[in-house]
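User: Hey, my collaborator sent me this sequence without any context and asked if I could get a structure. I don't really work with proteins. Can you help?
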Amino acid sequence: MYAVSAFGGTYGITTGMIMIPFMFGVGIIFYNAKNIFGWLLAIGSIVALVFGVIASIQFSFRSMSAFDLIVILVLSVGGLGMFLRSLRTIDKAIPDK
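Assistant: No problem. I've predicted the 3D structure and written it out in structure-token form, which is a compact way to encode the shape of the chain:
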């Protein structure tokens, strides 16, 4: 996922290596939820994992027509909009008695 150059060589950092500080961070959070070091370890590890996944994604639209792409994007954004609409409160629709 990542590579570090040190001591005349290149060493790779895998996702398993990033999970080690995450596990320690979660353990520290369960022991003491107010410990900022545990939160930094856990959140930093999650950010590194998400960044690594996003950085390794390769999109290929070569064999897709513009119509196919538009249909996929419209349905994806429409589904996201319907999901977000379902999270709104419904206080106005159901009056109190």
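In plain terms: The mean pLDDT is 84. You can pass these tokens on to your collaborator as they are.
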